[in-house]
Amino acid sequence: MDITSQDEQLREIGIDSRKALTELHVKDENQQILSELDAYILLMSKVPLLKPLAWLTGLPLIRPLLAGMYHWQINRRLKLSGRF
What we know:
The protein is mainly alpha-helical. It has helices at 7-12, 17-22, 36-45, 51-57, 62-80; strands spanning 25-27, 33-35.
């Protein structure tokens, strides 16, 4: 969904509008909202070719490194575009 001017709808489903700009959000099959790397891991795990990458992303030593890189890249992109 396009999150522009959707603050109320985002709040209704439990997503902070600022986090909607900085994190990927998906609903799983149980209607639970997953964000950030959990969302990417879920999506990758659904694609047979990407399942190994989902597993690798979830490893305890890899996950924090990727999370830091993810946030750095998102914040950089938003600052460059003037949206942050």
